[in-house]
Amino acid sequence: MLLDNTGLNGMRSDLGHLDESSDKLGFVRWQWEYRRATYDLKLHDRANGEDYFLRITTRAVEGKLENPDAILEVEAVYIGRATFPHGLDYESPIPQPILNTATQRTQELKQLLS
């Protein structure tokens, strides 16, 4: 599921600050290459035992990712149910408590990046 109204899309930050801010909230920079990086936050739903991931995709608009001064721009924010062995199902319904937590974390990240 694409989360359109987070206020994060289009925000820019240098890599060092984005890494530090996202780490404070529990995000991990998983996938990355010279121009793109993905930040994931694992959310566990105790009611159904499923794991969900809040995923923020970014693209370097200045510099490359090995440089902490590189400027990244948030491209999109997604949430999906984890599937075995590794992957995300973006079509499954997301429980409301997980959506609430995801919304809260995106707002916290937006404040840290502002």
UniProtKB/TrEMBL annotation:
It comes from the Bacteria. Pfam families: YugN. This is YugN family protein. It comes from Cohnella silvisoli.
